Amino acid sequence: MSVLNQTHDESRRLNGERNASPASDPTRAAGNGTVTLEALPGEIGGSMALAASVSSALEALWANKLRSVLTMLGIIIGVSAVIVMIALGEGASASVQQRLARLGTNLLTVFPGSGNVGGVRLGGGSLPSLKPQDAVAILRQVPGVETVSPNLEAGNIQVVANGQNWNTTVQGDYPTIFRLQDWQIAKGAAFNQNDETSGALVCDIGQTVAQNLFGNSNPVGQRILVRNVSLEVKGVLAPKGSNGFRNQDDIILMPFSTAQVRLFGQSHVNNIYVQVTHASQIATVETNIATLLRQRHDLFGSQPNDFRIFNNNQIVQTVQATTTTLTFLLAGVAAVSLVVGGIGIMNIMLVSVTERTREIGIRMAIGARGGAILSQFLIEALLMSVLGGIVGIVLGLGAADGLSRLAGWQTIVSPTALLLSFGFAATVGIFFGYYPARKAAQLNPIEALRYE
Predict the structure, then answer these.
(1) In principle, which of 101, 125, 284, 432 could form an S-S bond with 346, CB 3.0–4.6 Å?
(2) pTM of the model
(3) Is 273 helix (H, G, I), strand (E, B) or coil?
(4) Distance CA 164, CA 222 (A)
(5) Domain boundaries in the chain?
(6) Which burial class, exposed, middle or buried, applies to 85 when counting CB atoms under 10 A from its CB (0-12, 13-18, 19+)?
(7) Are 185 and 235 in contact (CB under 8 A)?
(8) DSSP codes of every residue in 194-243
(9) Long-range own/partner contacts, residues 284-288 (CB < 8 A, 24 or more apart)
(10) Alpha carbons 311 and 404: distance in angstroms, whole number
(11) Predicted confidence (pLDDT) per residue in 167-189, tens digit
(12) Count of C-beta atoms within a 10 Å radius of residue 298
């Protein structure tokens, strides 16, 4: 007779004894969540054995509901914390990238160098070395340049309109500045190339300027006095907010030719904005711009540059790397609670093995193999971690949404974060559940039957 037939016969014999005298059945009399012997893993094969193991594990968890919930609590908190921390990190990264994108993408900014007066070197930008013609030459002679704009800028300029006054920043640029710095128009229109060519007395104002000068009325078509020059408000810029350095909405933009002739009266520029066609070309374009400007400024040999070039993408990359590191750091800290939850699972499973020692001995006596015992306890630990992971995901999604709605923090929950946290929870259950399961599988049947 095969082992399987022997097992079935022995199982039928025990069932007959149980029906004759229910009180004598040790697994029923224990009343502590032990699993009945009608379907013992290892006594049947294939998917039925797995189903029996899952059913037995669920019965054991249900018999000790409070203990199971408290054990899963560490997994629930850990998964929720991982999801919330990653969502906060991703949201912060996206928010910073959005703000940096408003400064312009694939953007190089050429600044004047530092001047030298009486042997004393002045600060950066003090040397009037850049001309509008340099911007035109860069656009025409450097491959990979999409567009440029020379820039004239002055802060703390008092402007007057509608019986109100305000101190703001005034900037004169080519119409390409709207593309270079990602300016959008909320009302009216942006000044165009015809305005630039004719030196039209028009401007576009930021939201802060519009609010302080015109309140709730529409500024478009009204006039604003800038350094005794009357300008017509052609449009209102869409809000950008702060970029960490200043309020980007506190600004007035006007055609470069208008600013140069009517307001600033100077032949040099504060800086030159250069947009590169592709990010992969930035390093090459930067080198070629430096070569061109040295030629135009008659700089040879070891003579230092009278300009400096700033790569905006370097800030973006640095911030991206920093926020990514912080996201992983937050997730790592939150994952510690998952490890603590796993230790809790191991502890409870060891207690469960001790409580069910006699049950294990009976199963081994009627033919259950060590692998079947191990699989049942391992599945029980896995179920606790998986169920805790599911509840943790639901709570984590709710917490992330609550932070976004109530606290105003930007949160982004990615499918990767969900899979990562759930997979980690399942791995913790298997890892910390293996030792108790292995201990149960290695019990001596005779000693287990004698255990009281």
Answers:
(1) 432
(2) 0.59
(3) strand
(4) 13
(5) 3-95+319-450, 130-305
(6) buried
(7) yes
(8) HHHHHT-SEEEE-HHHHHHHHTTS--TT-EEEETTEEEEEEEEEPP--B-
(9) 284/144, 285/108, 285/142, 285/143, 285/144, 285/145, 286/108, 286/311, 288/142, 288/143, 288/144
(10) 33
(11) 999 999 999 999 988 899 999 99
(12) 8
